[in-house]
# Entry
Amino acid sequence: MRGWPLFRRGLVVFAAGAIITVLTFVSARSLGGFYVISLAPVSYGLIDMARGLRRPLSERRPWLFAAPPFGTNPDGSVSSPEPGWHPDPMMNQAVQRWYDGQTWTEDTRKAPAQA
# Structure
């Protein structure tokens, strides 16, 4: 698991640890006794959130969140490209994305080395 799913999982684990800590603190104050500081879930949550944000830019998938290109192909033309591997319109030229004739798919590969 990487990226935003890892960040979201870290956020949930962190929140669970924080809620456990707050609830036990409130009950200890009102009823007396000890409270539990949930360091493990809080720590693991913070670590997962940090790891989720530390992905290299080349591995992020901005097309899931960004609007599609304005009807242009990677080469700037407005005609529909042939189905196949083309330079990624949303990332860099080191990555190719599959065009199935209607839409750009999530399938990517490294661009072949240019001679």
In short: DSSP finds two helices and three strands in the chain. The mean pLDDT is 76. The longest strand covers residues 104-110.
